[in-house]
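Researcher: Structure prediction, please.
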Amino acid sequence: MELNPGGHAVDVTGAIRHLYAEKERLERVIASLEELAATMGAVRVERRGRKSMSDEERVEVSNRMKRYWASRQRVGASRATRKVPGRE
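Model: Predicted structure follows.
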């Protein structure tokens, strides 16, 4: 037996044995749930990450970004032509 920082005895072997038992129990539960899901039909798995865009959404985003960059280009052009005090 070892002592933890609080000075209490810790049965490491017993703790490991307990964790393995818990792991086996969880594996059985997961297997039974997977079996149940298979009998109920296809399992729907939530996808992570970005959602895909339809063609219409893609065109809409493209047009929006073209307008955005055109406006940025106009703002940049007006800044470049304007005189800044103290700069030659």
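Model: Helices lie at 12-40, 55-81.
Researcher: Thanks, that helps.
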